[in-house]
Design goal:
It is a single chain. By secondary structure, the protein is mostly helical. It contains 3 helices and no strands. Helix 2 packs across helix 3. The longest helix is centred in the middle third of the chain and has 20 residues.
Amino acid sequence: MHVGGDGSYGIPLRAILAKDIDNLFAVGMMISTDYYAYMSTRNTVSSMAQGQAAGTCAALAVKNNQLPRAVSYEVLKEQLIHDGVYLGEPEPLKERG
């Protein structure tokens, strides 16, 4: 498998949400991917990023009394950036304060 461009790609939130079970995330080796992406999504760094996203999404869901599937992508993205997670954005990261 060859990943073009800068060698990275995003993982949609829906890939770590269990299809028929509310409040269940599947990350690391359990993520839903196709054959070609599977090997690069189960490494340690990717699994850590998926776990961070799942935990943050779960916390936002509890905070807002909603299911994880209902958490706004923009709200999740904003929280992850606030927490210092690098999402491959073209703009420079702001210092945490």
